[in-house]
Fold:
Amino acid sequence: MQSDFYPNYSIEYSNPLRTQSTHIKSGNTIITDAPTDNHGKGEAFSPTDLLSSSLISCVMTIIGIAANRDSIEIVSMNAEVAKEMSSNPRRVTKVCALIHISLKGATEKDAERLKRIGLACPVARSLSSDLVQDIKFNINFSES
Structure:
């Protein structure tokens, strides 16, 4: 390992088909299991579930950063996420999501800008252009 290598997390494998990732700074952990359709127990997120979750979490985080910067209050934000897999080669081919956002102090123009900024998040830009990112938004405007 290089002397200037400073890991952010560590990962340990345990049988059967499980990993535990530990965030070094906080000590928080994430467990993954292989899915039932790929020889696993499916008792936790699979690595491909985390890929899909990472994409949508990144979109939502970037929207939050931009809204905060522009003094737009996010009253609530949540999403439903699904992924589609192919078998040859086995990979995620499509991530679908519906992100629900309730904004206070925003206009339609602000909402469109937030969506555009979110869809250009670092995870979205890091994934293959072969991966279909079907991300839709349901945005409501709150007065109180």
